[in-house]
Write a structure and sequence with these properties.
Aminopeptidase; 5 helices; alpha+beta; protein N-terminal-serine acetyltransferase activity
């Protein structure tokens, strides 16, 4: 773990329309407002949407994410429109395994920016970053089989459906759910 902290790579990435940067102290209010705006849309898919967000707790979460980024344990990025600086959502490389190396890409989008292709763009940017900058050999996306929007993001970003894990996890409503596994593998 100690040597991972010394691993050098940028904390900011750019795509055509987006600026992706690591979470910074003070971002909590932006994330909080986006979570409140989008909670109902994310409730079926995201466990954190079960509870009403609390601004102070969100800021604490952002600061922990900043520390995890510096430690190279989890690489969360906050997404901003380059043109006007508006906060779009969050994505990142999670469940990192530096021995392989591989990671899982997760994402969520603020309600007002859904359906504009911004998350697919961010995922493609993270895939390129993961492969070219970090030497990742496998990047995966896990999502609920019934989450059509999330599955379309994976497909538009060029990930291949590897399979469906049946009754893999509990959904936010407590029912068992199937998980779709998409991946991009560097051979």
């Amino acid at each position: 773990m100690t040597k991972l902290i010394l691993k050098e790579f940028p904390d900011t990435l750019e795509t055509e329309r987006l600026l992706l940067r690591c979470p910074l102290p003070g971002d909590g209010i932006l994330v909080y407002e986006a979570m409140k705006e989008t909670r109902e849309e994310l409730l079926p898919w995201m466990a954190w949407a079960l509870e009403e967000p609390d601004c102070e707790q969100v800021e604490i979460n952002v600061r922990k994410a900043h520390i995890h980024f510096l430690e190279r344990r989890d690489l969360r990025f906050h997404l901003f429109i380059k043109e006007n600086g508006a906060f779009v959502g969050s994505s990142g490389l999670h469940r990192l395994d530096w021995k392989v190396p591989c990671a899982e890409i997760g994402y969520w989008c603020r309600k007002r920016y859904m359906g504009q292709g911004l998350i697919s763009e961010a995922v493609r940017g993270l895939r390129d970053f993961g492969v070219k900058q970090l030497g990742m050999k496998r990047l995966a996306i896990h999502c609920d089989r019934e989450n059509g929007a999330s599955r379309r993001v994976a497909e538009r970003a060029g990930f291949t459906l590897e399979g469906i894990l049946r009754q893999h996890e509990r959904a936010t409503n407590g029912e068992l759910r199937d998980t779709a596994i998409y991946a991009d593998v560097v051979l």
